[in-house]
Amino acid sequence: MNILISGGSGFIGQALSQYLQGDRNTSNHSSTQNTSANITWLTRDINQAHPDSVSLMSYEQLKTTEATFDVIINLAGAGIADKRWSDERKQLLMQSRLKPTQALLDYIERIANKPKLLLSGSAVGWYGAQGDKVLDETSGFVDDFAHQICDSWEEQASLATQFGVPVALVRTGIVIHPKGGMIAKLLTPFKMGVGGQLGSGQQIMSWISLQDWVRAAILVIDEQLNQTPKAVDNMKIYNFTSTTPVSNRQFTKQLGDWLNRPTLMTLPEWLLKLMFGEMATLLIDGQKVLPTALLDLGFEFKHQTIQQALHQQI
């Protein structure tokens, strides 16, 4: 199986690539786990560091290549929580998602042998800030910048269906791993004993372990590839979140317990807004997002608690 990944060098992309190339001890699911996949990362830097087992393709090469791929996985995009949201940053966040997606659409339109699936990233930010209201793939949204960026990304990716390529839109929550993502950014202050809750601590955090994210992606790919042509869904939305969202206070306590450090500090809401401006909504406004579509596929989570996710091996 040949798989093209945009954003392959990122936190999730690297773990997914490693798994697809043979580290299959974290899943019970079928077809892609039986043979090691050939992975190509789509990149703007053809000289970037990468595993020897991974091939690189530039966006310029994508314009003319005759190479074909069974599955395309679209994860490219600047980190939404990495910097304060200035007007310039907002533009970068949007274009860093839309430009790679458009490049993939141009390739899909041009190539005769179409991929069997485009799995395209998004985030639970699509739902906007809705507090502790229970949300699933059928729920509506609150219009804010997080929604706008996710909605634009999803809308563009969905255009692949016009060329006969099914699309799986993946709305990801906070991805938990002991050595990467959000946890990596929190380790230093928490180890120093100055970690603590954000604002009221009541805001709900929808999360998923990195291992479960990878396993869920494999299941979605397998489900699509194993369907008969007449049964193939043109587009499907999946929430990649655990079934046990937690409050920020609960998350803080579990992270402190894991590190054996106190978590007595509180960053008040007014200070977070002063420090981060509009981006503070990611920290102080919650979303309670459940993975109904994954559960309907029979997916079983390995990590139901933050503590389990912090002890995962992948």
UniProtKB/TrEMBL annotation:
Protein name listed in UniProt: Epimerase family protein
One Pfam family named in its UniProt record: Epimerase
Every NAD-dependent epimerase/dehydratase domain range: 3-225
Entry's family note: Belongs to the NAD(P)-dependent epimerase/dehydratase family. SDR39U1 subfamily.
Residue span(s) of domain DUF1731: 267-312
